[in-house]
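User: Sequence for Peptidase M14 domain-containing protein below. Tokens please.
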Amino acid sequence: MANLTFYPIGTAGEKWGETEKAAWLASTQIKRSYQDDVVTPLKAMEAKLSALGLGIVQYGALSINAERYPLFAVKSQQFDPQKPTVLVTGGVHGYETSGVHGALAFLTNEAANYVQQVNLVVAVCVSPWGYETINRWNPKAIDPNRSFYANSPAEESAALMALVASVTSVEQGFDVHVDLHETTDSDELEFRPALCARDGIEYDKGTIPDGFYAVGDTEHSMDAFQKAIIDGVSKVTHIAPADEKGEIIGSTVVQHGVINYPLKSLGLCSSVTGCIYNTTTEVYPDSPTATPAECNLAQVAAITSAIDYVLAQR
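Assistant: Structure tokens for Peptidase M14 domain-containing protein:
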């Protein structure tokens, strides 16, 4: 049943114009610091990363404030064509905290175990303005994770696509992509109502799954790969069960803790490399039986399990 409680910006049943988008932007607030939480810790590990053969590269900056929002990735300084190439992306939705801090934790605690076996590219926080304002959208009320396509309207997505293209053209293609996300209570309390208001459609309240799940590709499901990720993460945190319809967030559960999406047609980040070993992680930080630290560890476990699986196939 449709929820008739309407979002405070806009007119029910009418798509937002520039006036409504400007009102929405004016309603946002800075709530935490990208520089303190992400850039400073990243720069603090620069010497350690360099010793591992990894470098910090700036691949862009956000036009709303280029000095405040530089875009950084950690990248292998030398690529070996005999090794698989791995992309990790965090903070495509900036409000999804464990994606960002899970990527940082992987670099801090696990990257050293893999730099001799794989080429690495880690984009720690794709949407730093979204991180600071704890928001799903960018300043133009665009969802970066629905904008990975040619001539993208989201500069966060366009910048990451350019980074991927630069690696592909100069170094080699990607073999693995782990895109780190969360599903939170705020999805239903704020972000889906805002989406429906923006698009002039009714809001039907959904349910938030309690636990970790993974999203694969409808076109290339790679079931054993997804299972390896679920098995690895289950040692750290609980896996979301299917609901009474056998679904998670409206999609059929194809195996324990896994659903599939048509990634490319939806413009999702996990389609950006075109590799078949890709997954989108989803943790639930609002669970009464999970902690922020546990969610970060789950993200790390997803990355390492994905890499371990692909290495075992070679």
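The chain has a mean pLDDT of 96.
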